[in-house]
Amino acid sequence: MAILAIVFIISALILAKSADYFTDAAAKIGKALGAPPFIIGVTVVAIGTSLPELVSSIVAVTRGASEIVAGNIIGANIASIFFILGIVVILGRKVKIDYDIISVDLPFLLGSALLLTFAVWDKEFTWTEGALFLVGIVVYLAYTVYSEKNPKDMRIEKQIKREGQRKKKFEPQTILKLAGGGFGIYIGATSLVDSVVGLAEGLHIGTGIIAMTAVAIGTTLPELFVSIAAVRKGNPEIAIGNIIGSNIFNSLGIMGAASLFGTIIVPASVLTFGIPMLLAGTLLFIFITDDREITAWEGWLLIIFYTFFIGKTLGII
C-alpha cells in the first residue's frame, strides 16, 4: 500500500508538469493558426486529455473487464462537470465565455449524454451502437472546424479576426513539446490509475464503485491539471472547451472505440445512480453557462454536488 501511495504522488507530479507543457504548446499552436482559445480547448486539448480514458477502456474490454468502461466514462464525465469545472471557476473567481456554446456545443453535450443513456439502458453496448457513436463524434469535430471558418456569432467572429491578426510563427520544438506533454499525460495517468485501483482494491471496494470513483478521478486528472494551468495562464475558455469537448469525446468517441473490441457490459450501479447524476450535471452545466458567465458561488455548488456523489457512491452519506 505504501508503494502504491508513492506511485500515486509521482504520477500526479508527472501529470501536472506534462499538462503545463501540453497547454503551453496547444496555446502557441492555436495562436499561430489564428484559432480562438475555445476551439483549442474543445479539440486538441480535450482529445489529448481524454487519452487515459480511451486507453484504459480498450484495455478493460480486451482483458474481459468491460464493466469498468461505462463506469469509468460516466464517472469521468460527472467529475469533469462537477469537480473540475467547480475547481476552475473557484480558482478563476469568475469565468466569462465569449464563444457561442449555446447554438451547437451545449446541444451536442446534452445529446451525447441522452444518447449514451438510451444506448446503455439494456445493460450492454454493442459495436453497432459504437459505430453510430463514432459517426457522431466525427460530425461534432467537423462542425467545430466549420464554425471556426464560418462564425455566426459576432463576438467570436471578432475574436477569430483578432487572433488571426496576432498570428505568430511557432518553433518546431513546440510540436515536440505538445507531443511530449501528451505522452507524459498518458504515462502519468496510466500509472496513476493503476495505483488508484490498487489502493481501492486494497480497501475491498467493488468494481463498479471503483470505476465511477477511483478510476474516473484518476483518468480525469489530466483535464483538471490542464484546466487549472489554462486558468492560471489567463485562458479560461480553454478549460471550458476542454470540459465540453472531453465529455462529448468520452461519451461518443471512447464508448464507440472501446465497443469495437467487444461488447461493453454496464453494471446496474452505473444505471441506478451514475446515469441520473450525469444527466443532472449536464442540465446544470447548461443552466449555469446560459448567460456565458460562471461565478465562484456556482463553482462551490458544483463541488457540493460532487461531494454528495462520491459520498453516496461509497456509502459514506
Structural notes for this entry:
The protein has helices spanning 2-33, 37-49, 51-62, 67-92, 105-120, 127-149, 154-165, 173-202, 207-232, 236-259, 268-288, 296-313; strands at 94-96, 124-125, 264-265, 293-295. Helix 4 packs antiparallel against helix 10 and helix 5 packs parallel to helix 10 (236-259). It has 317 residues and is mostly helical. The two termini are 26 Å apart. The protein has a single domain, classed as NCX, central ion-binding region (A middle domain of Talin 1), CATH 1.20.1420. Mean pLDDT is 80; it is low at 153-161. The strands form two sheets. It has a two-stranded antiparallel ribbon. It is built from twelve helices and four strands, in the order H-H-H-H-E-H-E-H-H-H-H-H-E-H-E-H.
Give descriptors for this structure:
317 residues; mainly alpha; A middle domain of Talin 1; two-stranded antiparallel sheet; two-stranded antiparallel ribbon; 12 helices; 4 strands; 3% strand; globular
Radius of gyration over all CA atoms, rounded: 18 Å
Low-confidence stretches: 153-161
CATH topology: A middle domain of Talin 1
> In oligomeric terms, what are we looking at?
single chain
Return the domain count.
Answer: 1
N-to-C SSE string, H for helix and E for strand: HHHHEHEHHHHHEHEH
- Proportion of helical residues: over 70%
